[in-house]
Every structure is written in C-alpha cells, then in structure tokens.
Amino acid sequence: MADPKLVVERLQRQIYKRGARIDEYFLDFDKLRTGRVSTSQFARCIEQLAISLSKDDLHALEEHYQALSADQIDYRRFVADVNRIFVEPQLEQAPTRAATAAADQMRKSEDHLEADLELLYETILEDLRSHCQQYGISIRQCFKDFDKVNRGTVTVPQFERNIPRSPSLEPVHLTVLVEKHRKKDSNMVDYLTLHRNVEGITFEEPRSMRHTLRKTPMVETPATASIEQLLRRLQLFFHKGRVRALHFFGDYDKLRSSYITANQFVCGLSLACAGSRSDRLTRVEMQQVAEHYSTERGVDYRRFCTDVDAAFLTGQTSDLSLHPQAEPQPLSRSQLVQETVGQTKSPELQALLSLLAERVTTMRLDPYPQFRDFDRRHGFSKTVTEAQFHRLLDMTLKRKFEIEEVALLTDYYRSPATGDLNYHAFLADIDSANKLQQTDQLYHDVVHESIERAQEASATFKTPTEMKIDDALRLIRAYLGRHGVRAKAFLGDFDKLRTGFITEAQFQRGIKAMMPSASMALMNALSTHYKREDGNGELAIAWRSFSNDVDAPDTCQMSRLRVEERSMSTEGQELLMDAWDTVMNKLRQLVLEKSLDP
C-alpha cells in the first residue's frame, strides 16, 4: 500500500503550482459543515482536482483520513495537511516558530537542462521578458483560451502555437522552452511557471499573504541613439510601410486636444511599429521619444506625427489639406535604399555588363517587373536570393549563362549583411534606357517616364497659366450638363453653418472632386472671380453664387450647354486643341516605345 505522506506531498506539489484551494471542492458535499464526506464524495472531489491518483493512493488516503464512521472521511484534516504548502498552521500559538521552506523547493522547476542549455534558457527568458514588457503581453493571458479550468498546463502544440514570438525567437529556442517546462508524468507544458519566470514573480515572507508576490525590477539598457536618429528610423519605416502615425494616437485623444499621456504615446507607437521586423524600437527608445515631445499638458503627439510624416509632405510646412493641388514628393532612392555594392568592377565584369546592356537595348527587354515579383517585399528590399537571381537571368535576358559568368555577377552584387543579391544595382548597370540607374528615384515607372519624355518632346505645348472667367464657366457648365451633376452637392458639405462662404482650399478641393480634369488655371480663374468678403470681413469664396451660375435648373438645357461648348471663344478652342495634340503625342510615343500594333 502506498505511503499517505508521499501521496500528500505529490498533491502539495500539484496544488502549489496551480495556486488552488481544495477546501472549496468539499464544501458543496458538506451542507451542514460537519467536516466529513463519504468515500465516494471524497473520490469525486479528488477527480475534480484533475490530479491523477491510482486506486492504491486513493485507498491509502481514505484509510489515513478515515473518520469515526467507516464510510466517512475527515476532509478537514486532509485539507489542513495539503495546505501546509501555503502556510504553517497554528502560528498564533507559537509566533516565534519559523515557517518551513517547502514552498521554495516546490516552486523550482522539476525539469533540469544541461549547463549550456540553461545558459541559453536564461538568454531566451531575458529576450522574452523584454518583448512582453515592450508590447504589454501577458503569457498567462495567451494560454487562457486553452486552459479553461486553470490547471496551468497546455499541450505542446498549444504552447508552440500561442507563445509570444519575439523577433529573435528561433525554432531551437522554442524546443528549449518546451523541454524546460514539460511535465514528467504527462506530455503537458507548464506555462504558469514560465509566466512567473518572465514576470519575475518571487515569494517573500510571510508566504501566506497574496500581497507578498513581488515583481523583480527590470534592468533596462540605456538608449544609445540620439533623438534625430530615432526619428530618422521612424521616417524610413513609415515611408516604406505607408504608415500614418496619426491613426494610432487618435483613439487616445477623444477631445482632439493634441495631447495624450506618456503611457498612451508608448502604446500607440508600439502598435505603429508592430509591422517592422528590423527597426523595432525598444521601450527605452520609445520613452526617449515621448520625453522629447513632452509638455506640461502631456505628450504632443501631433507635433511628433508632423515630424515623422515629413517623408509624405511636399516640402511645405503646412498640412496638405490646405494645398490640394500640391504633388507629394517621395524621398530619394539614395536615402531609402542602402547600396551594398562597394567593390570596383573588374574588366571581365565590365565586359559582361556591356554585353548584357547591349542585349537589353537590342531586344527591348524590361527585366525589372520579373525581378520585382521575386522580391520578398514586392520591390522594397531590392534583393533576391542567389538561386532566384540565377533563375531570373535565364528568364529575363533570354540567354544561357555560364557558371563563371554567374559567379562573377553574384560575387559583385552580393550583400555582406544578408547574403542576398542587390538586383536593383544590377539592373541599373544593364538597363539604362529605362532610367533604372542609381540616381534619385526610388520607384521606376516606365510608362510615367515615357510620358515625361513625350511632354519634353512636345516643344509647342505650354500649360496655360491664365483663363478667362467666361471660358471657365462654359467648361464647368458643359461638364455638369454631360454628367448630370450639380456643384452644390460637392461644395455644400464644406459650409456647415450655411453662410454661403468657404475657404479657397475647400473650394478647390470641391472643384477637383467634381471635375477631376480641372486645371489649375481654371480653378484660379474661378477663385479670383468669386472671392469676396464674408460676414466677418475676411476673404472667402462665395460658393453659393458660383453654384447658382453653373448649376442648370433642369436636364432639358443639356443641348444648350453643348451649343455653348461649341461656341467657345477662340482662345478656349486653342487651349482644347493644344490639349488634344498633347494626348495624341503621348499615345504615339507609347506605341513607339512598346512596339505596339493598334
């Protein structure tokens, strides 16, 4: 027969890890609080604890804690013996007696790794602790859905599925965590012990109080980068990922006061940077950014968003909404793409590149789209693997390459940091006709560049800078008549108070939304004609007057509008003819470059 003391120690070990109080399981069967339950009820309570005991172990406990009656169990004595792991009983009778140190022994993991793996485990634990603190992750909450009864254990697939993954977590690290916290008696992983290790929870005297759970203070390394370097990193990441930082802080500022707390700023910045694998800021660096923009009212997140969104602006200090016709200018390629090619070209390499460049020009090849499709980040990383590079050479250049030629190219264009090949620099050397060279542009659009060349070739075309108000109104009336729309529907929403006046920027935005083909000369003519003083004595656009002038009363006047369009002044007709010639020149240039047969 099993020793009841050993069985109780096993129960203590399991109960201690889960932090459970077993007396609650017996109270449901003891309505009169006599302290006794039947043997069948005792077995059911042990079964509810989800602790596997053999029949001999259960029979030993029943005999050891048997009450006066043969079929009754004194569960109070059993509960008191099991709960000794949490608190030493009857300390009030002997206050000078020291509590046993059994809890310190119980909380240590039963699994032991080798010495080198223990060092690796400590490194993984520190990295996981930093990752969870930076993004506010609780390991216990990650496995809550899998552990409905709070046993503190999950299966190995569940553990591998929901463990928080830091950027440096590798499969071998996951195996070490599983082996460290795997239970010996079952194929389960004790995630609760890992949670306590990550949170730095330690036990202090007296161990019976819940408030004695303390967190070990985190030791954080000080930030070494300056605020300018941090902002530069954020600018590059936000520009590449097309991230608008303002969207991540607006939910914290319900009153739109432009100020939030430092903790809210760090949380919003963590979410904004969550998509990056290489440029994640540490919590210390985020705190450094928050302190830089801190004021008496809080962190000025709008000023931060203005600084990091500089990559999307046009060079103007004000918002783009005030300049709807401004064209945003992306950052230069030299700023966003770091070239890894620093060697000098050998004569053999120069001869090979010249031969490939001649082949691209002769056969009118455009290899860039194929290389971009093999890019891991759809054209952002500008690198491919060596196997992909060899495959793309045969695919795009329509030529069989020797092993020596491929080795010559890969040795020169290989990145020392990642080992991948910089295809962007390679294409710049062999495809100069499409301007794929190491200059200022980041993205190369062949169609857009051909249109630019067509515009440069059309020396007779000049963009009009002025337009008569009569011609502008005729164009607007003709456009509204053809499309059956009204100007009031596009301009009325800007006038919330129905004053009949809106700003010039709002007027131009409404005109552009109503008539996308409207030129700047047309909008300037309309703005100058309808600019008047509002009720406050400030200059504004009388949009209601404009709407009354251009909105047709009904659709029956469409024929008259078409007649007005045909009866346009000589100068207006010349502008239309110039625009028509420009479009035809663009189409001719595209047909020649693409060798199309319309």
Features:
extended, 598 residues, mainly alpha, single chain, 3-stranded antiparallel beta sheet, two-stranded antiparallel sheet
What general form does the structure show?
extended
Overall strand count? 13
Question: Which regions contain 5 or more consecutive residues with pLDDT less than 50?
Answer: 107-111, 203-213, 314-318, 331-341, 435-449, 459-463, 554-559
Helical amount: 40-55%
Tally of helical runs: 29
β content, as a range? Answer: 5-15%
Question: Biggest sheet, in brief?
Answer: 3 strands, antiparallel
Calculate Rg over CA atoms: 38 Å
Terminus-to-terminus distance: 96 Å
The strands making up the biggest β-sheet line up spatially as 11-13-12
List the helices and strands and how they pair.
Blueprint: H1 4-18, H2 23-27, E1 36-38, H3 39-48, H4 55-64, E2 72-74, H5 75-82, H6 102-106, H7 115-135, H8 139-142, E3 153-155, H9 156-162, H10 171-181, E4 188-190, H11 191-199, E5 201-202, E6 214-215, H12 227-241, E7 259-260, H13 262-272, H14 283-292, E8 299-300, H15 301-308, H16 333-336, H17 347-363, H18 368-373, E9 383-384, H19 386-397, H20 403-413, E10 421-422, H21 423-430, H22 446-457, H23 469-483, H24 487-491, E11 501-502, H25 504-514, H26 520-529, E12 531-533, E13 539-542, H27 543-550, H28 558-566, H29 570-594
Helix pairs in contact: 7-10, 13-14, 22-29, 23-28
